[in-house]
Each structure stands twice: as structure tokens, then as C-alpha cells.
């Protein structure tokens, strides 16, 4: 009887939460702290800091909700002129 190697298909790699934020910023999305929290990330400023440390030019913009007056922060990727 011949023995075959484990031929199960390899599982697709899981996308980490940092990669999710990075991909959305690279796609041109403007993210708020709430958007990042809705993605299941408890400490959004830490994720932004890590991405900045890795060389991403992320701009943060302090904003206020015109209806409630509640402050929030928007994050977006600095566009580079090529």
C-alpha cells in the first residue's frame, strides 16, 4: 500500500487587521476612528502609528460632527504626485 503525502489544499492566509486598514487606506478610503473600531480593532491609534512607522504617509484630520458637535479624527493616505 502506498502512502501519500498530506494533499489537503493549503488554507488561504488570513488577512491581519493591520493589513485590512492598510488596504483600505491604499484604496483611497478616508477612515475614521469609528470605522477602524467597527473592523474589530480596539486600539485604532496604535494601528495608525504602526503603519506610519512602516513608512506610510498617513494624514490625520481633526473634525467635528456638524449635528452633534462631537469631535472625531479622519485618517487618509497622503497622495504622492508621480
How does this model look, in words?
- 32% of the residues lie in helices and 20% in strands.
- It is elongated.
- The chain has helices at 17-26, 33-38, 44-53, and strands spanning 31-32, 58-64, 71-77.
- Helix 1 packs across helix 3 (44-53).
- The mean pLDDT is 86.
- A 3-stranded antiparallel beta sheet has the order 1-3-2.
- The chain has one domain (17-77).
- By secondary structure, it is an alpha+beta fold.
What's this model, at a glance?
The protein has one domain.
For the terminal residues, how far apart are their CA atoms? Answer: 62 Å
In helices, the fraction of residues equals: 25-40%
Describe the biggest sheet?
3 strands, antiparallel
Shape, principal axes of CA atoms: elongated
Number of domains: 1
Uncertain ranges: none
Discrete helix count: 3
* Average pLDDT taken over every residue: 86
Fraction in beta strands:
15-25%
Using DSSP, what is the number of strands?
3
Q: List the secondary-structure elements in sequence, H or E.
A: HEHHEE
Strand order of the largest sheet: 1-3-2
What is the gyration radius calculated from CA atoms?
Answer: 19 Å
Structural class: alpha+beta
